[in-house]
Amino acid sequence: MGIPSFGVSMYLVLISILISLSIRGEAAEYRYHFCSNQTFSPNSTYRSNLNRLLSFLNTNSTREAGFYNTTVGQTQTPENTVYGLFLCRGDLATIECQDCVSTSTKEIVQLYCPEEKEAVIWYDECMLRYSNRSFFSIMEDEPSKILWNLLDITEPNRFIQLAEKTLSDLVPGAAANALSGAKRFGTKETKFTDSQTLYNLVQCLPDLSSFDCNRCLREAITNLSTAFRGKRGGRVLNPSCNVRYEVFAFYHPAIAAQRASERHQESYRPADEVKDPLKSDIVFAGKGKSSKAIAIVIAVTIASSVVLVILLFFFRRRRARMKSNDINEENPQKSDGLLNYHAASEITTVESLQFDFGTIEVATNKFSDDNKIGEGGFGKVYKGVLPEGKEVAVKRFSMKSLQGLEEFKNEVILIAKLQHKNLVRLLGCGIEGEEKLLVYEFMPNKSLDNFIFDSKRRSQLDWKTYYNIICGIARGLLYLHEDSRLKIIHRDLKPSNVLLDHNMVAKISDFGMARIVSENQNIANTKRVAGTYGYMAPEYAMEGIFSIKSDVFSFGVILLEIISGKRSSGFYLTEHSQTLLAYAWRLWNEDKAIEFVDNFLMESGSTSEIVKCIHIGLLCVEENPQDRPTMSTVVVMLGSESIALPEPKHPAFSVAKFMSTDEISVNELSISTIVPK
Question: Which of 260, 380, 420, 517 could form a disulfide with 521 if both were Cys (CB 3.0 to 4.6 A apart)?
């Protein structure tokens, strides 16, 4: 009795779906990126060619090989030619590869390298690379990055020896696989203890020679074992190959094993042999009762798989709905604490960013006062210099901080997911005992408040620079509210949380009180109001109600502070006997807006542009949140010289005047469950 091939195929598809659903994350997991120093202009031919290249890569992401390279440009203009490729992890299903490539082609230019000619980005599931020079079939081991799991392993010496041997055993098979279009990929599971299995993976670009693949992988394994820190997982990322080991299954073991088997069993199979169960062209030997029994088993398995898929679908949908509902009314014991989100995947995010604590101690001269560059309710910030000479800022949390380990990990996860030109970049973290550290890119010009509230330093910048800072803050907030994969409300935007790099580019920092809300959620509330006096929207300060319009209010206050050179907090104690917002509103209604402007700015800036910014600031601080513009509207208003602005309405200026500081919890750390858009 023959078995219909469609039944077997359906069974295999269902099994593949189940494996994919059980292991696959909801989005490609970013790990690291590199951008060159060469840049291109937004309207250049290179940018046009890059867009075409990324489109071609995206279109070809359904290729079974999980790899594709191409070139866009003309030989007559080599300076505008773009070379690019993607490589997906060897065990991925086509749809998983397609998802990762689609994500990478968007994020590389939107978040990470918006104007650099050469870039490479790694996710758990794929790598994408492009350049203005040809790099095809060339083994390159720079740029390179070693990432570590956060957790320690018992018997570290035996563990690294086992990992090194297992990874090395995989190299010959991956390097020798030189078939056209074949994957240079290998995995292997090895028992470390009775309860722990070591999972190992190696992979090369398919266009490398066997010699270069072998050399790349062996150098990566050597680097990994030499730098071993006693951690239970590690990986090396470079443009030509990657290796990784963990004590959890970070790939699909069954599919990986099948594809390895396929590579070695293409030449010969006996006619009566039962082929691998993941192939659709299965041949069954024998007749009669044996075949009938097999048919019954397969039919039952298919039916069970269908039921399981349906149940799994409804379970996942119900869980997603429960997550969404959880954040509509904030529970002080849950949402202001932290709930796990994609636990296994997110833990690896923290682990891959970890710095060795001793390295940070050395970098900051053991956290000496001479290296201290800031201090807040959370603890202190130190300048550090890493062994390779890179300057960093180290945020060392106070032992008295309310932030626990889980909260700290979730803050790392949140910040690691936020990558934008106008957001400060997290480089890593450190945990040892009660010590918790965050390591950021170093901002040599410190924070915005050091300029706008210091009469001497204020005059060092002209209006154009301040205007660019204003636009940078606006773009950073727009990213948080609308353009990132997460919809985020900062809740503590103020000048001291706006850092300035060496080019005076504004970067929003300090996400300790950030809240993540669902994509369609416009408003939320909390019983724990946490913020900073003078920048909190009245509906949040008085009722605990916050939304993206709360951040818009804070932005408006900062905008008015930049223009006036005056602090909003405590302004009513001056000779004006009004809040800063009330003072700006009165002068606006009396057609005396110019009197609100700091004299120095009037000397270096355009009067019409400055007045426009006052106008936008007043729109942002209106009393009714619904009347305030969104940040996308603010960005448009700032960038247009001809757009007609609506007349501002009465600002909310009473909160700053009459509210006691005892009613506000300053620098209280709170992050909600992460909900992807």
Answer: 517
Give the Å distances, CA to CA, from 548 to 315, 441, 651. 31, 27, 17
Q: How many angstroms separate the CA atoms of 273 and 568, rounded? A: 81
Say how far apart CA 305 and CA 18 lie, in whole Å: 8
Q: Which amino acid is at 524?
A: A
Kind plus residue range of the DSSP H or E element containing 428: strand 426-432
**Two tokens, residue 62:** 């359904």
Non-local (6+) Cβ contacts of 345 within 8 A are 25, 29, 124
Do 213 and 160 touch, CB atoms closer than 8 A?
A: no
DSSP state of 522: -
Q: Are 519 and 461 in contact (CB under 8 A)?
A: no
**pTM above threshold 0.70:** no
pLDDT in tens, 504-518: 999 998 887 788 775
With contact defined as beta carbons under 8 Å apart, do 378 and 395 qualify?
yes
β partners of residue 507: 499
* Amino acid, res. 107: E
3-state secondary structure 157-180: HHHHHHHHHHHHHHHHHHHHCCCC
Residue that the structure tokens 């090989």 belong to: 65
Can you count the helices (H) and strands (E) in the chain? 20, 21
**Residues 21-73: pLDDT tens digits?**
344 344 578 889 999 989 999 889 999 999 999 999 999 999 888 999 999 98
Rounded CA-CA distance 376/384 in Å is: 18
For the annotated catalytic residues, the residue numbers are 492
Contact partners, residue 107, CB within 8 Å, separation at least 6: 30, 121, 419
Give residue 448's identity as a one-letter amino acid code. Answer: L
Q: Which of these, 466, 441, 505, lies nearest to 600 by C-alpha position? A: 466
Q: Is 31 helix (H, G, I), strand (E, B) or coil?
A: strand
Residue 175 corresponds to which amino acid? A
Residue 401, C-beta contacts closer than 8 angstroms, at least 6 positions apart: 377, 378, 379, 436, 669
Alpha-carbon distances of 260 from 66, 177, 247, rounded to whole Å = 15, 10, 21
Cis amide linkage into residue 332, ω under 30° from 0? no
Tokens of 188: 């292997």
Cβ–Cβ under 8 Å, residues 278 and 20: no
What b/e string do you get for 175-187 counting C-beta neighbours within 10 Å, with b at 16 or more?
A: bebeeeebbbbbb
Domains of the chain: 36-131 (3.30.430.20), 145-251 (3.30.430.20), 355-441 (3.30.200.20), 449-663 (1.10.510.10)
